[in-house]
Amino acid sequence: MHFSNKHSINIDLIIHLLFQEHAVIMGFFTASRHMKISNTLNTSSTITGFILLGFPCFREGQILLFVLFSVVYLLTLMGNGSIICAVRWDQRLHTPMYILLANFSFLEIWYVTSTVPNMLANFLSDTKVISFSGCFLQFYFFFSLGSTECFFLAIMAFDRYLAICWPLHYPVLMTGHLCTNLVVSCWVLGFLWFPVPIIVISQMSFCGSRIIDHFLCDPGPLLALTCARVPVMEFFWTIISSLLLFIPFLCIMGSYTLVLRAVFRVPSAAGRRKAFSTCGSHLAVVSLFYGSVMVMYLSPTSEHGAGMQKLVTLFYSVGTPLINPVIYSLRNKDMKHALQKFLGI
Question: 0.70 exceeded by the pTM?
Answer without folding.
Answer: yes
